[in-house]
């Protein structure tokens, strides 16, 4: 495979076109010879060769229109210049006048120009005209068709163009069939279908591209396989960890309930309350670990972003913010035909919103925006808190990340879960700070989904 080159194909095309052009020229020459031989047309110099005979006929005496072949234009006048009979065209009057004054005249046309000759005898003045070039013998064809030479050029050019387009189409289809293999291979790789056999091409350069794509496919498949194995191992480890932690937590909860039944002292009650808060945090931690381990394996039918879905998100945001006496402002509520896994994206939105609520002071605002753009769909959540630290902007979506200022009550998995969900859905999470005159007025999280 790959024995041909693009240069070779181009050379072959040029040679084929040249060969076809030569054939067209031979067909033209054959057509001219055949039409002259059969009397269908006359040679270009035929009227000129016949002119001495016409001249002799005029000198012999009076003539009529029937004395001249039909390919001559004839105007017969008496000695006073009165026209007795004529087959001349009206548009040729000026040339007739010039021929009478100078003895001959010629029309200034690029194709099918005419020669005008002035003859006379004792009683008549005769002006003859004939086309310079080959033409039809039939007067009917000469009347309704252009000059035979012009018509031959038109037909020949049309025939050559038709052949050129057919030859070009043949070679173009051949190259397109090879190029489409690159496009199909690229589509398969883009759709992560990495088990298909990469086709071969008959064109060397295209085959080299396909070989490179095949190597990329194999490397990508190997890399993804390793990544999936690592993810599976991490998921199994997280599942085992959450299972192992639940048992001692259950025992702690049971013992706490027993201690509370013994009517502990106020000091002991405060200690028990702190223990309960710690157990609650551990339960939240385990729940987030379960969510994180289940993201990559979760499958869901995709559906568009409807107005109802956006309304549900807004209602959830308002109910969550109400508990913390926070106001929700909504700028845009645009639906989209983009297909998403609505359950997972809702989970991502809820985590971002929870993060915004946690860091917004009472009485402040959280601004939401749902925008549909030509190439992406964007969900923006902006709070009125202290914003993200420089470290959080860089590592906020990394697993188990918590900055020193954020450690109380936060275990660093909320935005990680959001990041994992967005990555799975060909999207991204962008963290930034909203500023007014270089002063941070809140943190902003943008969820972007590519179309």
From TrEMBL:
Its EC number is 2.7.13.3. It comes from the Bacteria. It is found in: Membrane. It is a multi-pass membrane protein. PROSITE patterns: HIS_KIN. Its main location: membrane. Residues 240-451 form the Histidine kinase domain. It catalyses: ATP + protein L-histidine = ADP + protein N-phospho-L-histidine. GO terms for cellular component: plasma membrane. The chain crosses the membrane at residues 12-36, 150-171. The keyword Lipid metabolism does not apply. It is an enzyme of class 2 (transferase). GO terms for molecular function: phosphorelay sensor kinase activity. This is histidine kinase. The lineage of its organism: Bacteria, Bacillati, Bacillota, Clostridia, Eubacteriales.
